[in-house]
Write a structure and sequence with these properties.
The protein has 340 residues and is α/β, with parallel strands linked by helices. 42% of the residues lie in helices and 14% in strands. The strands form 3 sheets. Strands 2-1-3-4-5-11 form a 6-stranded parallel beta sheet, with helices on both faces. Helix 1 (11-18) crosses helix 2 (22-30) and helix 10 packs across helix 11. The longest helix is centred in the C-terminal third of the chain and has 18 residues, at 299-316. It holds the Pfam family Peripla_BP_3.
Length: 340
Amino acid sequence: MPAQRPRGVSIQDVARAAGVSRQTISNAINAPHKLRPDTLERVTALIEEMGYRPDQSARSLRSGTRRIIAYTTPETDPDNPNALMSGFLEAMVAAAGEAGYRILLVRPRPGQSRARALEDVIAARTADAILLSDVLEDDPCVDYLHETGFPFAVFGRTGPGRPQAWVDVDSAQAMIDLVGLLSSHGHRRVAYLGTSAALPWLRHREAGFRIGMRRFGLAGHEAFVDGLDEVVAVARDLLNRSPRPTALVLDDDWLAPGAYAAAQAEGLTVGADLAVTGFNDMPYTRLLQPPLTTVRLPLRRIADALVSRLLQSVEEGEPPEAGLLLAGDPVLRPSMTTVE
């Protein structure tokens, strides 16, 4: 007779050892948001210690789910990848994995719209839910997914009257806080250098700057650029205003090298004669001299919130009724100065 294959650790074994129900073990693997943090920590540790691994194929057959989240990745230049989106993807993979899900990357074929690529995913039943990012307020993909009833969540805000299954950074408040930080360091004249692209997150930052300037009673000017080749010239123009600003607020870190070059051309030292702040905390901001004060996006908190909302839609059939704003994390570095 062939030797019997040894029986693996079952869910009942783990439940018995933990002194909890089978459902609690199932929730720890499939819906950790349903458990108290102390219970989740204890049960998860025991699952790892006992080496319990659920039968994925059997679970998929029972539940009708594949435990896959499809993510339509934005296009990027492989020779100049977007470090921010790479960090977001890493956070999503980690958050989804802890919930027992995997991330499937989806990119439209040449000439194919993103909505059509989503239609292919739904028709092929290759995923249980879809994650979108870089959406505009009237994004047709949001409307399409809403019409199909397919579970989805969005990194970035959708417009009024559209599904609110989104998570975003409160860019306006983060910019208000930056202006407040400059005010607390004695700055009274602050200039703003922004990007002219009509992207909602950039407009939120611009609006926050203006609110902050009014709230803290500061004076300043604004200017906008279309591309990298304009940054130095436009920044120099701002620094030549009279009276000269003592701080320069950027709506994105990618403007910082040009702003530093403009300051140098005007005989100013960043971190001594001029404060400069950015947004996004891109990796190179720590290598600038001096390192850049900026706002870090809480990517892991964003990913956790998105996965939680996706699981709510997939496993409970209840899509979120309201969007969720998360605070940005200010990062204070030597490009900040104090005005005596």
